[in-house]
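retry 2 of 3: previous attempt timed out while embedding FE2/S2 (inorganic) cluster. Reduced batch size to 1 and resubmitted. Inputs unchanged:
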Amino acid sequence: MNTLKPFFASSLGKKYVMAVTGILLFGFVVMHLLGNLQVFMGSEQINDYGHFLKSKPLLVWGARLGLLVVVLLHIWSAIRLTAENKAARPIGYGEYKAVGASYASRTMFMSGLIIAAFIVYHLLHYTALVPAVNLTGKDFGQLLDSKGHPDVYRMIVLGFSQVIVSVFYLIAMALLCLHLSHGLQSMFQSLGWKNRKYSGLISNFARLFSIVIFLGYASIPLAVLFGVLK
Amino acid sequence: MKLDPKIPSGPIEKKWDKARLDLKLVNPANKRKFEIIVVGSGLAGASASATLAELGYSVKCFCYQDSPRRAHSIAAQGGINAAKNYQNDGDSVYRLFYDTIKGGDFRAREANVYRLAQVSVNIIDQCVAQGVPFAREYSGYLANRSFGGAQVSRTFYARGQTGQQLLLGAYQALERQIGQGKVKMYPRTEMLDLVLVDGHAKGILVRDLVTGEVTSHSADAVVLATGGYSNVFYLSTNARGCNVTAIWRAYKRGAAMANPCYTQIHPTCIPVSGEHQSKLTLMSESLRNDGRVWVPKQRGDKRPSHEIPESERDYFLERKYPSYGNLAPRDISSRAAKEACDDGRGVGPGGLGVYLDFSDAIKRLGVKTIRERYDNLFAMYQTITGESAYETPMRIYPAVHYTMGGLWVDYNLMSNIPGLFVLGEANFSDHGANRLGASALMQGLADGYFVLPYTIGHYFASNKIARPATSHTEFKRVEEEVKQRVSKLLSIKGKRTVTSFHRELGKLMWNNCGMARSEQSLNENLRRIPELQEEFWKNVVVPGEGSDFNQSLEHAGRVADFLEFGELLCRDALERRESCGGHFRVEYQTEDGEALRNDEEYSYVAAWEYQGPGKTPIMHKEPLVYEELKMTQRSYK
Amino acid sequence: MNLTLKVWRQKNPSTRGEFVTYEARDIIPDMSFLEMLDVVNEGLIARGDEPIAFDSDCREGICGMCSLVINGIPHGGQKGTATCQLHMRHFRDGQTITIEPWRAKAFPLIKDLVTNRGAFDRIIAAGGYISAATGGVPDANAIPVPKPDQEKAMDAAACIACGACVAACKNASAMLFVAAKASHLGLLPQGKPEHDQRVRGMVAQMDAEGFGNCTVTGSCEAVCPKEISLDFIAKLNRDYFKSLLKNE
Ligand SMILES: Cc1cc2nc3c(=O)[nH]c(=O)nc-3n(C[C@H](O)[C@H](O)[C@H](O)COP(=O)(O)OP(=O)(O)OC[C@H]3O[C@@H](n4cnc5c(N)ncnc54)[C@H](O)[C@@H]3O)c2cc1C
Ligand code: HEM
Ligand code: HEM
Ligand code: SF4
Ligand code: F3S
Ligand code: FES
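retry 2 succeeded.
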């Protein structure tokens, strides 16, 4: 315990929590994207994938629990850090230029919060399958495919055929991209893995990945809207 | 007043050992019972405070900046000397001793200088252990350079920031003691007076520069390490806040002021650009290792440097001093530059400048090497002048830089007031009439790390006097005087700003008591300065209140002291009817314009004793006895 | 050239401050920024007004005393330049310039543009040193230091403790300052033995002083007059992590 305390008490400790949970979340986002992209391989494929997951309750609930803890830790330290940072400058400047600071770096908390809001909606939408939030008037829970498994494919197509829903998703994806574009490099700095030699490499990696993540996710609602997926 | 230098007997190389044997010690258990006030947190003050606290004494340290780390030692660029002989080029303690004495034009005390050379070796060890990042060779061993008119490479340096790095070492040691509660630090606090009880220095009066509160502090001994007084010239390479107040107050309480006329002019500073100029910036002397100094041969030649052909350039240092050339000592180089300018051959605005030309060095070594060696200096030059020294030659001009004079101290660094010790640039001890480059850092640290910690114990062990309370009548009396002086300054409400007085004093000092001094010019100052003093106390305007953060008030107090001190400086210069080192009297020069010493009549330390307001001070003489070296005419030809 | 100045005036911490506008007339491009303020102050004093209080001492970019936020940027935004080294030739005739003090909870305001940076000293006192009492140390050349290490340590040691990093950081974080000092000493063999306590002590004090946390925005490096590199912050993060693992 004694060794753990400073991780949550000290400023740098919180940054480690931030970074580690950040990586894990990033890891999830990547895995999840791979899962979702299967939608392009036809309803067969993605539905079986969905069914496969359902059939492993232990794994799923384990993952969900872990994920919950990670998100909560991430948010907790985010809130603590941000609160302390506000308190560190009680009287602001009349004129202030954040020289050398990227837009993404200055808006991490905001982008994060909106992502959080999105996640909540998203869970209701596709996990809890609350009919009220999907705006189609249908209950996705009722959708079954030929094998009698939940029809994830139809759910996605129906879900994103709602323009407002898709737009909200796209906005959330964009913010996630922004969040990661800074987060993914900030992470290395926080864990002390960065230096002059690699910093260029690292920031390029961060930009590249955040864009790939965005395109990957965005492709699905867009594909639905433009009738690629029916 | 009797001035006993207390120089130990015996052969010079044994004196310091003998002294340390004879000095009484304080029982470790009793040390913390002794309170020591250290005024100043520069190399001298910080190293002393830290070391005294390490020994167990209770220390109070004062400085006027917001942090002890900002003392002006931080500005030193070039380096620090030490007789390590790491380069195996024939250096030795004895040679450093000899060079320093000779550089000082045989006006320093042999015994002190020899000790300085001895402990120089320990200083480097100490600083390295503290983590001072001195320049290294690829081998990992320490690098050296030759500096300021020395023919051996004995100068240790940390890029262009030697003073900063040395001060950080001392400052960190000091902060360590502060953290342990052994030193109490008083930043933004200015010493305004010294308090004597039964003839012993037992405390000081200070003003808290933030709240304006004036308070007394008593102690068993007072140490002054308050730096130099170059700002009496208004424009100098010193920081804005550098002042003479601390030692001037001590002088007015009976401490002897020694050789105030010994001031050093540094040859390589950036020339003045206008009336608004607030201070002068030094370009490290190391530039002279590769730069060549020249002016046009013909008067009033206004052509840009590159249009002046080789044949029409006068490399006057190389011409006059073939063996030292551009590395001739400071006083000599400075005067040569002044002569060239007085001769109407100066360059740049107002003709007050000479060229320091790197084009040959760049041809010889390539831009890369020059960049490696001097880039930070070239950059500094460019930020200030807007010119690139890679393309056009630098313009440089001499500026007041260092003051060898200061409070008189004996071999133990104690002034004639028992219990009052003086360290660093504030004392007069080791540099005679001229200081060699890279020797002031050495002296400040020698005094603070390795001399005072031994000698102060002897004072405690041999004088058992109880520390007075600050309620003592003496403290109350001085406190009244100080408060009255402050309110007087505020109540004048005249027309002229403090700065305008300071600037006028500076002009008088620079023109009549600067690089060249004469009976007539000095007498003029002795007439004009008192007039200026009078006007100051009638017509100065100091806005704001005393019970507040008030920078005009700080400045006013300092200028008031400079006005009085300037007069003494000129008087000392007048009485020294010879030329030596930084003190050049036009009446006394060889036919080829070199300083002409008069060893028969003037090989003494002039120590001035205050006689009261309006009264002419009395000069006492400490004869300089040369047992080891024989005085020779300094020649750098 | 003539300029309009919007300067923060505040008599003391307990009274409330405000921007006051001044005209700076006949300014010469060769003046330094502080000399320009000197001129304005001379005018104020001559009128019997209180001059603008601001810190400065060496006026050659090394003591770290000067500390002005000029048009929203600490030290005015000239690369690697402290306020006292900033020259008027970088401004336009007729320009309006806002001048403010460092703003941070850990740097309480004293007056006008003057703040109290004592927090930095306390951070050093909390471990920013090598415990080498005077005397009793080995010969300087007994500890060879690889040139690259020494150069890197020197890069970090160049910090002048001006506090611009804190002033510029959107979180008022002191990471660059602390990282610079911790790295200067940590990179040298002499500094290794105390390295872990040093890092932990300095970080603990930094937090106690009420500085913010680093969220890697990089403004500090951009305004640092000594161009101290962000790499040192990464190094501090790494070293602190290690020190926690070694904790007991
Ligand atoms: C630009 C420049 C470059 C130099 N380069 C070199 C070099 O390369 N090599 C070399 O050997 N020497 C050099 N010198 C000389 C050397 O730096 C100084 O002589 C030396 O550092 C003086 O140290 P000090 O501790 O005696 O005084 P300082 O470092 O000046 O310290 C004075 C201290 O006293 C305090 N103080 C002063 N008055 C008061 C008061 N009234 N009340 C309270 N506190 C007060 C100040 O706050 C400060 O802490 C240089 C000097 C200058 C100006
Ligand atoms: C799937 C969702 C998320 C991912 C993948 C993610 C990823 C990351 C990463 C990699 C970092 C960098 C850590 C560091 O700087 O060391 C980070 C930082 C941060 N995240 Fe998130 N995050 C997510 C959600 C959130 C949420 C929901 C919030 C809610 C407030 C948030 C707020 C922050 C903040 C404030 C930072 C600090 C920025 C910094 O320290 O540089 N993030 N995030
Ligand atoms: C077009 C984009 C997306 C699609 C099509 C999509 C699709 C889905 C689907 C179908 C599920 C339900 C899976 C199941 O219940 O078994 C799900 C769950 C989930 N999604 Fe997404 N998702 C998208 C984007 C995101 C993003 C960007 C995030 C995170 C920032 C995210 C986080 C989650 C989480 C946390 C779950 C719950 C996982 C679980 O049930 O264990 N999703 N998503
Ligand atoms: S790191 Fe740079 S900005 Fe920060 S205090 Fe040091 S020198 Fe100033
Ligand atoms: S600006 Fe602040 S956020 Fe970190 S990188 Fe510098 S401390
Ligand atoms: S005044 Fe010394 S750094 Fe600017």
